[in-house]
Amino acid sequence: MAVAPTTTPIVADPAAAPRRAPAAGTGTTWRGHLLRLPFYLLSLTMIAPFYWMLITVFKPVTELNRQPPSFVPEHPTLNNFYDPGYSPTQVNPGHLQGIFQRFQVDFGFGRFMFNSLVITVAVTVGSLLIASLAAYVITKHRVPGRRLIFLLIVASMMVPWQTTLVPNYVIMRNLGWLDTYQGYVIPALAKAFVLFFLVQFLHSVPDELIQAARVDGAGEWRIWWQIVLPLLRPALAAMSIFIVLAEWNNFLWPLIIVQSDEMANIPVALARLNSYFTGAQNQGAIMAGGLLASLPSIAFFLAFQRYFTRGIVLSGLKG
Questions:
Q1: Which residues contact 36 (CB under 8 A, 6 or more apart)?
Q2: φ, ψ for residue 90 (rounded to 5)?
Q3: What is the pLDDT along the chain (319 residues), one digit of tens a residue?
Q4: Which of its termini does the chain have fewer beta carbons within 10 Å around, N or C?
């Protein structure tokens, strides 16, 4: 009778076993902090001006004139927005006009915020609708010369936009649109980069989906409105961030066509405020205007940044 050979179990030596590398992100070493040091320094250079603006807004006039300056408001105040102790008939160095008391227009600084809001919303909505409609025609219709038209539009991105200032100004003057909302909005509706981005996005949409809608009897306008626009939602959200930030902070073109304080937007109003009122004692009101101008754009970006990331990832910018 054969006896089955016995085998001695092999016990692995814990010391000889290969050590598993720690998972990424489970620990932070001094080398990791050292590699991130340039990013820390870069973030400080970006945060420092905003912090200085923030503390200046809440400083009284006496602290604004202090040398050396303080980095934390000792007596916080809201007088830089509206100073109830200011009187135009009595000169008081401790009480100056707040940002909402500086301009002799209806609603004061709120008028400029309203102008910027109307212009930004109109340009954003109008340019996205026009670009989406043009992208739909270029990608899903066999229009003669569509490739040449698209190449010409893309080539226009290589032309500096400053070269169009004089022709656009002449056109707006001849149309009588200087110092009007349409003078703000109409020249800003054509955006080649937005069209280019949406065209690349629509290439990923199958043509069979559009053909099926046509077979079911849907018209082109209905297809664009009920099929194309919902599919473009991530790309439209991504592009809206760029358009909103650009139009909210637009300065040069409004400066050219604006002739009255009533039609100025926020950047133009802040530039005039800085030229009308100079000196350290007026820094509070100027910084208050800058804070009011920056908060809406920051809030918009924080609210839509996930759409921004998803739109870029989904598009892939594929031809």
A1: none
A2: -120, 125
A3: 445 555 444 444 544 545 555 544 444 588 887 888 888 888 888 899 899 999 999 998 888 888 888 888 888 999 889 888 887 777 777 777 888 888 888 888 889 999 999 999 999 999 999 999 999 999 998 888 888 999 999 899 898 888 999 999 999 999 999 999 999 999 999 999 999 999 988 988 888 999 999 999 989 999 999 999 999 988 898 888 889 989 999 999 999 999 888 999 999 998 888 766 555 567 888 889 999 999 888 888 788 777 766 655 654 444 4
A4: N
Strand partners, 90: 87
